[in-house]
Amino acid sequence: MNAAEDRKLIRRCLEEDRQAYRLLLQRYQDPVYNYCWRMLKNPGLAEEVAQESFVRTLTRLDRYDEKYPFSAWLFKIATNLCIDHIRKNKRIAYSLDEDLQGSDGSFRREVASSTPDPSQVTFSNERREIIASAIAELPEHYRSILLLRHQAEKSYQEISEILDLPLGTVKIRIHRAREQLKRRLKRDEIVS
Length: 192
Hints:
- The protein folds into 2 domains: about 5-90, Orthogonal Bundle (Rna Polymerase Sigma Factor, Chain: A); about 135-185, Arc Repressor Mutant, subunit A, CATH 1.10.10.
- Helix content is about 70%, strand content about 5%.
- It has helices at about 5-15, 20-40, 45-60, 70-90, 120-135, 140-150, 155-165, 165-185, and strands at about 100, 105.
- It has a two-stranded antiparallel sheet with strand order 1-2.
- β1 and β2 (about 105) form a beta hairpin.
- The radius of gyration is 24 Å and the shape is flat.
- The chain starts with a helix and ends in a 5-residue tail after the last helix.
């Protein structure tokens, strides 16, 4: 998605060009819907919130600041709407100890165990140890960058500042570290 093209479309939208509205919608419809679906885990609700995101965005285009990417503004609106919806529609809590009342009388609630199967836990733990061991075998500059990114959950920019490296170097090292890790895991037959 090209920022310059977005700005041109937005200017046309502000002049009430219907074709520009359609093009802007087509450009971002799928990414916004997919994002809302991941946030809300409900296709119908995701569609509703995505549509509301576009309505709010398009009716407030005069407030858009061209110094920032349009997509960031649109996704911020979608994020806020998703979070608002999640907060408003928190599930009602029911006691699991109380019997349910039905037309045929009352009956006990039965809830499936949410604890994982012990063999799955063992497999996950073993896999985690193998991955940790493979990361420990990486050269220090790859190991540190992977840990900052995936365990400390630092952004590329934060890693750049922490390690005092150019942003491009950070991206290249993360890519190369992942490739080396993947090769090691393939060697140990952890991944295919």
